């Protein structure tokens, strides 16, 4: 590892994605300790934070007659509907109390556009609206990104694929991730990352 060229990207280590949260990832809290251990090996860390306004378009509650995990068509394509989660300023949107990465240098909030969901740390789900993270990382001189966090088959997956597309050497630390695994989504995610050239470690 080159301490000046490697960065750890931690996706969404938030209360709502852990047991007891609104969109709990199975065993999600177990990933937090692994993330903390991994982060100690990195001089540079970036953390993402899901940050939805109330009534966000990805919430099933915003669509009468729809239930969580239904799919609908939005302006930018197919969208899975989720329970209300990570609403701005709520306890569910806060970082997990056991997260211990005091040296994290940047928090990237995503999903704050009311009509666009966001899985990737790099682009909103319309695949056009950038978060600015790629530019930040390039300007800082980073060359390789290691990803971890929640959830493997959504935010880690999309972030990893966009990282490769942006030109970064990309790997995913699987022991510091946990998956939702919705209808086989984990196996599909792992296959997609391998096919894109993501190193799974």
Break the fold down into its secondary structure elements and pairings.
Elements lengths: L5 E6 L16 H12 L5 E6 L20 E4 L2 E4 L25 E5 L22 H8 L3 E7 L1 H14 L3 E10 L6 H12 L2 E2 L1
Parallel strand pairs: 1-2, 1-6, 2-5, 6-7, 7-8
Antiparallel strand pairs: 3-4
Helix pairs in contact: 3-4
Features:
single chain; 201 residues; alpha/beta; Rossmann fold; 6-stranded parallel β-sheet; two-stranded antiparallel sheet; 8 strands; globular
Q: Would you give an account of this structure?
A:
The chain is built from four helices and eight strands. The protein has one domain (about 5-55, about 85-200): Rossmann fold (3-Layer(aba) Sandwich). It is of the alpha/beta class and about 200 residues long. The protein is about 25% helix and about 20% strand. It is globular. The protein starts with 5 loop residues before the first strand and ends with a strand. It has helices spanning about 30-40, 135-140, 150-165, 185-195, and strands at about 5-10, 45-50, 70-75, 75-80, 105-110, 145-150, 170-180, 200. The strands form two sheets. A six-stranded parallel sheet has the order 5-2-1-6-7-8.
């Amino acid at each position: 590892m080159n301490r000046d060229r490697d960065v750890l990207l931690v996706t969404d280590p938030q209360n709502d994605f852990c047991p007891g949260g609104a969109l709990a990832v199975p065993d999600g809290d177990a990933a937090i300790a692994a993330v903390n251990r991994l982060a100690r090996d990195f001089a540079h860390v970036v953390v993402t934070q899901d940050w939805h306004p109330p009534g966000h378009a990805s919430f099933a509650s915003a669509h009468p007659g729809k239930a969580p995990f239904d799919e609908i068509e939005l302006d930018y394509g197919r969208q899975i509907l989720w329970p209300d989660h990570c609403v701005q300023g709520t306890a569910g949107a806060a970082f997990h109390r056991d997260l211990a990465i005091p040296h994290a240098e940047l928090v990237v909030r995503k999903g704050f556009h009311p009509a666009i969901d966001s899985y990737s740390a790099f682009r909103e789900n319309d695949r056009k609206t950038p978060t600015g993270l790629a530019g930040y990382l390039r300007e800082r001189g980073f060359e390789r990104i290691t990803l971890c966090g929640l959830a493997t088959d959504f935010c880690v997956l999309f972030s990893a694929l966009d990282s490769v597309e942006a030109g970064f050497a990309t790997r995913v630390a699987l022991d510091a991730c946990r998956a939702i695994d919705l209808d086989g989504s984990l196996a599909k995610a792992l296959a997609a990352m391998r096919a894109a050239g993501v190193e799974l470690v």
